Amino acid sequence: MSQATDDSLVISSDPLHPANLIPELCRSFYNLGWVTGTGGGICIRTGDKVFIAPSGVQKERIEPSHIFVLPFPQPEPSPHTDRVFLRRPALNLKESACTPLFWNSFDLRDAGSCIHTHSQHAVMATLLWTGPVFTISHQEMIKGVRVAGTGHALSYLDTLVLPIIENTPNEEDLKDSMAEAMTKYPDAAGVLVRRHGVYVWGTDWEKAKTQTECLDYLFEIGVKMKLAGLPTVLN
Ligand SMILES: CSCCC(=O)C(=O)COP(=O)(O)O
Ligand SMILES: [Zn+2]
């Protein structure tokens, strides 16, 4: 494997290049309160390459040169190989701690993009829905969510169900429980993490983004409805 210093993988004049999109999207997510305080983020997969932001940095200040590029799929691990990179930033940065969780969306749903937010709407939903799932029905925005995140759009008459997993002290350690939830709830478009946030994926970054917007709206209105004493699921 080369030294992974190929800057041509992240330097492009195309505004739709993933290395340009990730910084731009992180800035808008920051303004929504989704990725403040360095947490949360987005990754984009284009066929055999995955573009991922660094860990523990102000996500609204990322530059294209800070982006990691990894091959997809990753080569089989051996006792001597760690994660394989096509390109690493020159700065002393580490790839997002969300990387194994983003990988769940590629491996289990063939996603092209995955978003992780620390939105307070998502966190409040995990506090008010104390069981293993968030549910809501009879909301127009349900139609903006797809079965399994990558299938056909839900109907107004469908009840949206999203699993909630328990948080762990280290983000990476959520990988197995997220995968278990994805297996148990094959139609879910995302996974909530109690007292932490949400992971949402889609076939591409546009669908991952719009689905996260719809879900965040549903978390917010669901929380308001519950606090107002209104039922969130109708028969
Ligand atoms: C205050 S952020 C705590 C860690 C976390 O939840 C997270 O999403 C970190 O992501 P990163 O991409 O910075 O590794
Ligand atoms: Zn997080």
Automatic annotation (TrEMBL):
Q: What is its EC number?
A: 4.2.1.109
Q: Per UniProt, where does substrate bind?
A: C98
Q: Where is the signal peptide?
A: none
Reactions the enzyme catalyzes: 5-(methylsulfanyl)-D-ribulose 1-phosphate = 5-methylsulfanyl-2,3-dioxopentyl phosphate + H2O
Statement: the UniProt record of this protein carries the keyword Zinc? yes
For the ligand (Zn(2+)), the binding residues are: H116, H118, H196
SMART domains membership: Aldolase_II (SM01007)
Q: Please state the protein's primary subcellular location.
A: cytoplasm
Alphabetically ordered keywords of this record? Amino-acid biosynthesis, Cytoplasm, Lyase, Metal-binding, Methionine biosynthesis, Zinc
Keyword Repeat applies: no
The protein's matches in Pfam families, at most eight in alphabetical order, are given as: Aldolase_II (PF00596)
Query: What remark does the entry make about the cofactor?
Result: Binds 1 zinc ion per subunit.
A GO BP term here is: L-methionine salvage from methylthioadenosine
Record-linked InterPro entries: Aldolase_II/adducin_N (IPR001303), Aldolase_II/adducin_N_sf (IPR036409), MethylthioRu-1-P_deHdtase_MtnB (IPR017714), Salvage_MtnB_euk (IPR027514)
Any one annotated GO CC term = cytoplasm
The record places domain Class II aldolase/adducin N-terminal at: 20-223
Q: Could you cite one Gene Ontology molecular function of this protein?
A: methylthioribulose 1-phosphate dehydratase activity
Spell out the subcellular localization from the entry: Cytoplasm
Question: What is stated as this protein's family in its record?
Answer: Belongs to the aldolase class II family. MtnB subfamily.
Q: What does this protein do?
A: Catalyzes the dehydration of methylthioribulose-1-phosphate (MTRu-1-P) into 2,3-diketo-5-methylthiopentyl-1-phosphate (DK-MTP-1-P).
* Protein's name according to its UniProt entry: Methylthioribulose-1-phosphate dehydratase
Protein source organism: Tricholomella constricta
